[in-house]
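Protocol step 4 of 5: obtain the predicted structure for the target chain.
Materials: sequence only (see below). No template structures provided, no constraints applied. The aim of this step is simply to have a reference model before the mutagenesis design in step 5. Sequence pasted as it appears in the construct record:
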Amino acid sequence: MIYHSTPSLNEQDKEALINVYSSGFIAEGPLVSRFEEEIANFNNIKYACAVNSGTSALHLALLALNIEKSDEVILPSYVCTAVLNAVNYVGAIPVLVDTNIDNPNISYNDVEKKLNKKTKVIIIPHMFGLPADINKFVILRKRYGIPIIEDLAQSLGASLLVNNIEENNNIPSYKLVGSWGDISIVSFYTTKLMTTSNGGMVLSDNKYLIDRVRELKDFDQREKYKIRFNYKMTDLQAALGLSQLSQLAYFIQKRREIAGIYSSVFSNHSIKYLQSDKDRKSVYYRFIIFTDKAESLIEKCKKEGVMCIRPVFKPLHRYLGIDGELFANTENIYKRFVSIPIYPSLDENQRDIIIRTLTSLFKEINC
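Step 4 output (structure tokens):
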């Protein structure tokens, strides 16, 4: 079976973990601090705080922004339930919005329609490694003073065009996702772009926000009581994270190479797929193909030994019993999107099997 997702682990990662194990110090320590610093440097952001999961990171980001009961939080329906969970943890009211017509990212137009005086924050995930229209939302933030949380769980290392051409040097200028909003969160779950097995990070140029996150993530040894959390990352996780981060550029390069191969072959076979453009540098956390027979394709691929999935298990509006007609674009991409294997450890033989299987099945079931 060619799995849909698998972590990219090697001897370097193993050695990093053994070194921490041998030191006898495996709880939160100096390696966590170093990991925070290096992630912040990687993303050109001043401050970072490591935590035990991406969900914890989002929970703390919301608390740092003083989001509380009865506040409205805008988020896309087309995203994993962990995002909704974090909003519910703080007692806020989730306001779901649709995606764009042509890609799975949050719709600027629908967000604008649903803004009101109770809106306190907008959560913007960059889905499948493809940057959202964060440049538009920054303008919205300036106009209304509503903070933005960027969700980098699937997009660490992706970037968006800042302007067409920089003065004098004729070179396009790109800015990394995560450095546009007020605060950003990352997940390092096993199948993410890089992993600490489980873990997360909160990033911001605002020291006050990161200090708030840091104060809330650890409940122990405090003079005064208030509700705090046990959200610390360990040095074991950080050691793996540091090793993985040193390889992240390679991981992204390999994903882009595989995406290029898929794109070339699928274009020749009239198989439609989610494309990036010159304004966005995707990191291809997912490679998405389109079909009106998604369920059938997924089942037949599994029988052929290729694991494909729906990239979002179920849109949030379906969980909450909200009419799908209000989320027409989300419903369309949910029904038609299929995610196929793409990760750095895929070898040439596996890629050939994936390509042969998909091109054959597209003809067989007339996708």
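Step 4 remarks: The mean pLDDT is 96. The two ends are 23 Å apart (CA to CA).
Proceed to step 5.
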